[in-house]
Design goal:
The two termini are about 20 Å apart. This protein has 11 helices and 14 strands. Helix 3 packs parallel to helix 4 and helix 6 crosses helix 7. With about 350 residues, the chain is an alpha/beta fold. The longest helix has 19 residues. The chain folds into 2 domains: about 60 residues; about 250 residues, TIM Barrel (Alpha-Beta Barrel). InterPro entries: Aldolase_TIM (IPR013785), Class-I_DAHP_synthase (IPR052899), DAHP1/KDSA (IPR006218), DAHP_syn_2 (IPR006268).
């Protein structure tokens, strides 16, 4: 059950609602200044709360992720990040190196992303690597390079945060906090990211179900942060021909269940550069709001994820592809799901 309070409700009026919920035998969780969540539906409590003057609406929602659900919000969420729109009727392109390497390299990539029509520069400053001996990123120095690239190009910046106590630091430099697949169910990290107020892109875990993914998103939303972007980046299956299996089913499935925008990551989804462009096309054709890919001027020399990284010509062709597909679909794509 979700209780929506009227605008400009005072702290005392909000406390009255929480007290009424407690007296009704339930616990209320405040998810922002005008939203309270009660995990269980109760018709008697619903009627009692609806009669309070400070309550605008009471919604009985039978879902473990009520704030992420279509029942709570029927229209698609559209997120504005520094004037760049995610979730509208145009495809969003995020691109950059797996790891931030040097400022000159990053600026060359950023200028290419901008010129090709991309809106966001991605780049890892803190890198969760499978081997402890692999390059782990430049840390804050990498974040500073990303900020310089933003100042020079106007691109939005997205970069991964791995630990709760690093959220404040990363938030100083980036426009979107990325939660990686390995951290999809790192609940302390999700809470801190939600509290930051920054838009958060939540990648699906390697073995995460759609329900688990949306419940992870609920942790962020429950902190009063409505700006959550979902990213399908491939799940682990028995298939070995690709690094992961990009689950395109997830795009329409998520859109039927949730109002949150979803983008696809065909770089991690396939692990092989030859397959990135066709799967980016497929993701947008399936209805994804955007793509995030890894690019580099000389992919073979990239410090990490070289095998799945596109060169600049391949990236330009990808952007042209997805923009054509998005334009063809925009007239018929429903922005509100029943």
């Amino acid at each position: 059950m979700v209780i929506v309070l009227r605008p400009q409700v005072s702290a005392e009026q909000t406390k009255q609602v929480l007290t009424a919920i407690q007296e009704g035998g339930h616990t209320g969780y405040q998810a922002g200044p005008s939203t309270i969540v009660v995990p269980k539906n109760d018709v008697h409590l619903e009627a009692s709360l609806a009669s309070l003057p400070q309550v605008e609406q009471v919604m009985a929602i039978d879902s473990p992720y009520p704030l992420a659900s279509r029942a709570f919000k029927k229209e698609d969420t559209v997120i504005d990040v520094r004037g760049h729109i995610i979730g509208g009727d145009k495809v969003t392109v995020m691109a950059g190196p797996c790891s931030v390497e040097s400022l000159d390299n990053l600026l060359e990539i950023a200028e290419t992303v901008k010129a090709a029509g991309g809106q966001f520069l991605r780049g890892g400053a803190f890198k969760p690597r499978s081997s402890p001996y692999s390059f782990q990123g430049h840390g804050e120095e990498g974040l500073k390079m990303l900020a310089i690239a933003r100042d020079k190009t106007g691109l939005g910046i997205i970069s991964e945060v791995m630990e709760p106590d690093k959220v404040a630091l990363v938030s100083e430099y980036v426009d979107i906090l990325q939660i990686g697949a390995r951290n999809m169910q790192n609940y302390p990290l999700l809470r801190e990211a939600g509290k930051s107020g920054k838009p958060v892109m939540l990648k699906r875990g390697l073995s995460g179900t759609v329900d688990e993914w949306l419940m992870a998103a609920e942790y962020i939303l429950a902190q009063g942060n409505p700006n959550v972007i979902l990213c399908e980046r491939g799940i682990r299956t028995f298939e070995t021909a690709t690094r992961n299996t990009l689950d395109l089913n997830a795009v329409p499935v998520v859109q039927s269940l949730s109002h949150l925008p979803i983008i696809v990551d065909p770089s991690h989804g396939t692990g092989k550069s030859a397959f990135v462009r066709p799967m980016a096309r497929a993701g947008v054709a399936a209805g994804a709001s955007g793509v995030i890919v890894e690019i580099h001027p000389t992919p073979a020399k990239a410090w990490s994820d070289a095998a799945q990284t596109l060169d600049f010509d391949e990236f330009r062709a990808l952007v042209d592809d997805v923009e054509r597909i998005s334009a063809a679909l925009s007239a018929s794509r429903p922005l509100v799901h029943a």
